[in-house]
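Researcher: We plan to redesign the surface later, but first we want a full-length starting point. Tokens attached.
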């Protein structure tokens, strides 16, 4: 089969090569004829222009009418283009020199005879007629026309020869093509007969056996016939049929094992479904595109309520930790969902569900209703606000009477009772400050915090806060340093900003050991005032920094070190800063101190002396 295919291919290739050569020769002959026609056309056009030049001059000389100059002028305008065309069509031909000679004679006729005669008509008509009668112009024109005619005859001969050659090549190509076609058909018929005997019949037997195998007859086999690849195909088919027959038993065993595995998976799914249905929390599993794959009845009821609430314009999310639970499929998220208008609150937990190659295949969503816990928090806040308000009046009265007793020298109190009363006074004042903090937090939670705004000299407020904390720093043997630049706020509450500084400085002193340093800095950055309190104390672990500004939160260092406090100072600082349109940031490394910065907008630098620096013993804390 390979030899027959090679022979057929060689015959077809030879026929094709001969046809290509014949066609190429015919194309070259046709091109030569076409180029000869182009030269003849250029000669004809140029000859017409030369005749127009001669007849125009002759008519103008004989009649004196300028209308005869129209064809003469037109011929002069056309002449450069026609000469260029003749040069172009004879550019690569032997006639190029003849064409250049003709163009030169035409230009000489125009410049040396035609133009001078026309110019001589008006001043000396008789002399112009004598030039015409002399026949000089006509002889030149006749010479040009003879040369054009000779060039035309040569090109016609060349064109005729090229056409005859092209016709001959076409006849040869037709004869060769017909013979090659007949020979090819004969070879194809012989090749088809060979294929039918050597390939088609054995392949049909294989196809028949394959249909039997597809119908379930694994005993179907192909009789041994043919040779070469066809014989190998039959043998391979028989081997495959035998393997299929042997493997049917193994497939049946695997099918039975697979059915047993499916039954076990169904039992496991039933157990998982029972556990999910018995769980009071709403649980769902979502795929990578967000579609629900699995959910329990509580999730179905909650999801319906969530969709209805969000569609009605409700729904509020409070982040607790992690990223965006709605858009980040790779991270763990904890937040709270409050359905506005229903009074229901849910704690949501979202975690990725692992897939192949560590790529998340979806998300697990768990919702737990915490409406009662949040209601308890609200009741607790109301209780704190009520108790704080009720305690403030009697405490104020107690402090007033204590001051009266201690200031009245006529009572003649002994030293011991006076010390006892002073202890009572200090603790009453501490209790009053705590009650004030509780009332402040209650105002913030209720959204009723009011500021008494006006221009504020932050440098002065900071100096007063540092001076007030000086005695406490001396007792704790901590250096209290201030670095102040003259900065003023366009609008702010002076007392509340002083409360911010008092809380930050006292907090820093409490957490800085003896020998440490607390720095209070004030500077302007653009239109923002920055109040910074930094210490060299114990520092804050990174895991606790996110909760520092929560109400009643106390760091582990405060509880382990028995540092007094209830965890409201930083919450108050944050509330006052945000009420002024600012913010509070913290930077800390455990064991290397902490730095709290309050940024307040609307600041402007004051034209005052350069920043001051002040150092004195003091203590620091958180």
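Model: Full-length starting sequence:
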């Amino acid at each position: 089969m390979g030899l027959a295919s090679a022979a057929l291919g060689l015959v077809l290739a030879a026929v094709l090569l001969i046809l290509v050569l014949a066609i190429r020769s015919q194309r070259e002959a046709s091109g030569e004829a076409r180029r000869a026609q182009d030269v003849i056309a250029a000669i004809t056009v140029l000859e017409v222009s030369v005749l127009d030049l001669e007849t125009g001059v002759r008519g103008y000389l004989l009649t004196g009418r300028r209308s005869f100059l129209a064809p003469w002028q037109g011929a002069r305008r056309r002449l450069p283009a026609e000469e260029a065309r003749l040069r172009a069509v004879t550019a690569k031909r032997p006639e190029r020199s003849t064409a250049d000679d003709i163009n030169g004679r035409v230009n000489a006729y125009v410049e040396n005879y035609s133009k001078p005669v026309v110019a001589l008509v008006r001043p000396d008509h008789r002399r112009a007629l004598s030039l015409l009668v002399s026949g000089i112009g006509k002889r030149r024109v006749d010479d040009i026309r003879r040369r054009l005619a000779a060039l035309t005859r040569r090109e016609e001969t060349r064109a005729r020869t090229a056409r005859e050659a092209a016709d001959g090549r076409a006849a040869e190509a037709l004869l060769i093509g017909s013979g090659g076609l007949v020979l090819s058909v004969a070879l194809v018929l012989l090749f088809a007969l060979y294929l039918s005997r050597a390939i088609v019949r054995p392949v049909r037997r294989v196809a028949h056996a394959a249909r039997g195998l597809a119908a379930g007859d694994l005993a179907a086999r192909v009789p041994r016939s043919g040779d070469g690849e066809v014989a190998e195909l039959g043998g391979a088919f028989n081997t495959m049929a035998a393997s299929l027959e042997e493997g049917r038993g193994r497939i049946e065993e695997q099918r039975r094992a697979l059915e047993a595995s499916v039954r076990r998976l169904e039992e496991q799914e039933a157990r998982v479904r029972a556990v999910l249905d018995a769980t009071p929390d709403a649980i769902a599993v979502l795929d990578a595109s967000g579609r629900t794959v699995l959910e329990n009845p509580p999730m179905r009821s909650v999801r319906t309520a969530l969709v209805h609430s969000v569609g009605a314009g409700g729904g509020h999310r409070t982040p607790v930790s992690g990223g965006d639970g709605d858009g980040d499929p790779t991270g763990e998220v904890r937040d709270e969902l409050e359905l506005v208008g229903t009074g229901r609150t849910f704690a949501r937990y979202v975690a990725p569900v692992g897939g192949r190659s560590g790529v998340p295949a979806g998300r697990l969503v768990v919702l737990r209703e915490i409406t009662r816990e949040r209601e308890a928090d609200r009741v607790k806040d109301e209780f704190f606000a009520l108790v704080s308000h009720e305690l403030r009046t009697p405490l104020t009265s107690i402090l007033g009477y204590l001051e009266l007793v201690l200031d009245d020298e006529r009572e003649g109190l002994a030293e011991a009772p006076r010390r006892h009363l002073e202890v009572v006074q200090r603790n009453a004042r501490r209790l009053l400050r705590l009650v004030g903090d509780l009332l402040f937090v209650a105002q913030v939670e209720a959204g009723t915090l009011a500021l008494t705004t006006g221009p504020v000299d932050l440098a002065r407020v900071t100096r007063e806060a540092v001076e007030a904390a000086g005695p406490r720093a001396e007792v704790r043997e901590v250096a209290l340093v201030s670095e102040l630049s003259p900065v003023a706020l366009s609008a702010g509450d002076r007392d509340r900003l002083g409360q911010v500084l008092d809380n930050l400085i006292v907090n820093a002193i409490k957490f800085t050991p003896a020998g440490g340093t607390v720095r209070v800095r004030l500077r302007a950055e653009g239109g923002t005032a920055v109040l910074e309190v930094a210490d060299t104390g114990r520092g804050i672990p990174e895991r606790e920094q996110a909760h520092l500004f929560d109400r009643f939160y106390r760091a582990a260092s405060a509880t382990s070190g028995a540092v007094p406090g209830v965890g409201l100072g930083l919450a108050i600082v944050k509330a006052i800063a945000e009420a002024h349109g600012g913010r509070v940031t913290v930077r800390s490394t455990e064991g290397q101190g902490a730095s709290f910065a309050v940024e307040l907008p609307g600041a402007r630098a004051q034209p005052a002396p350069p920043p001051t620096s002040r150092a004195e013993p003091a203590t620091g804390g958180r």
